[in-house]
Design goal:
single chain, alpha/beta, D-Maltodextrin-Binding Protein, domain 2, 2 domains, ten-stranded mixed sheet, 12 helices, 45% helix, 19% strand
Length: 328
């Protein structure tokens, strides 16, 4: 090779190396090329955790990278959500959120460490489940009307559990207090599993729960189910009436789960996550497995989820104002 050709080849190699370096700096390298983390802002065993763990092996296969489920409970989901809001916006950290930490708490708490609208980017709506009103079998009630009558006649009222202040379960109890004009004492827990454990033990009387954790106990007779909180009955429990059918017209609350990433995450990475998560959610085996537990999978576009998310913020602001709910 003569000197001129060698010089030209060296220059070409330098240009290609610079281009590759620039591509890496611009974030256009192969994505993903290392493990992804899904932060679940609640304890293991609740519906949020069940959903995240159902998706993990499918995403592992689709993205050819390990999927790490990172449970970060506390402060009504806000510890985990804040962690993701402040994470590097590189597409490697996502939040499996519930309605509480992204659409309720900003109307309930005077200050939050993050702004769900400004600091988080919606990826997709993962699933929706009705809440189900369950009581300890020691409570002499077989319907919502009987429960209301019993609560009115009981000195000091009854206790209702929730997985934390500002949770959709908390607001459901507050709404019943307002509509039925009964005295219920809110007992917040640090997640769904301890709330459910105390309900099973009789330490609390009432719980508006996500369906997946409680349906086995309802079927075994350890808990009594009185109603679901959506306007339509759940296919997973078709014999259980809605709250509207049980005497509370207009009662319509659901617990939903959505995937978010830090706000500045590159658009192409958000699109890829949306595509793969939506495909996983629409798999028939996943839909059937989660439907058996009362959870309807979704998997919509980022634009659809963004519009839904913002509408939910307005909806729960109205419920909080009407019920007078507070972060106890």
């Amino acid at each position: 090779m003569d000197r001129a050709r060698a010089t030209l080849l060296a220059a070409l190699i330098a240009v290609l190396a610079a281009a590759a370096s620039g591509a890496r700096a611009a974030g256009t390298e192969t994505y993903p090329n290392r493990p992804l983390r899904i932060v679940v802002p609640y304890l293991p065993g609740g519906t949020t955790d069940i959903l995240a763990r159902a998706l993990a092996p499918i995403l592992h296969e689709a993205l050819a990278q390990p999927i790490v489920i990172d449970n970060r409970p506390g402060a009504s989901g806000m510890i985990g959500a804040d962690l993701v809001a402040k994470a590097s916006p590189d597409g490697y950290t996502a939040l499996m959120a519930t309605v509480a930490e992204v659409a309720i708490n900003q109307s309930l708490y005077p200050k939050m460490a993050y702004d769900p609208v400004k600091d988080l980017a919606p990826v997709t709506l993962a699933g929706i489940t009705p809440l189900i009103l369950v009581i300890h079998p020691s409570i002499p009630a077989s319907s919502v009307n009987e429960l209301v009558a019993f609560a009115r006649g009981k000195q000091g009222g009854l206790t209702f559990a929730s997985p934390g202040n500002g949770s959709v379960q908390h607001l459901s109890g507050e709404l019943v207090k307002t509509v039925a004009r009964i005295d219920l004492l809110h007992v917040p827990y640090k997640g769904a599993p301890p709330a459910l454990a105390d309900l099973l033990g009789g330490q609390v009387s009432i719980y508006f729960s996500g369906m997946p954790p409680v349906m086995p106990h309802v079927k075994a007779g350890r808990l009594r189910a009185l109603a679901v909180t959506t306007v339509k009955r759940s296919p997973a429990a078709p014999d259980i009436p809605t709250m509207a059918e049980a005497g509370m017209p207009g009662f319509d609350i659901s617990n939903w789960f959505g995937v978010f990433v830090p706000a500045a995450t590159p658009r192409d990475r958000v699109v890829k996550l949306n595509r793969e998560i939506s495909k996983a959610l629409q798999r028939q085996d996943v839909k059937e497995r989660l439907a058996d537990q009362g959870l309807e999978t979704v998997g919509n576009s980022t634009e659809q989820f963004s519009a839904f998310f913002k509408a939910e913020i307005a909806k729960y602001a109205g419920i909080i104002k009407a019920s007078g709910a507070r972060a106890d």
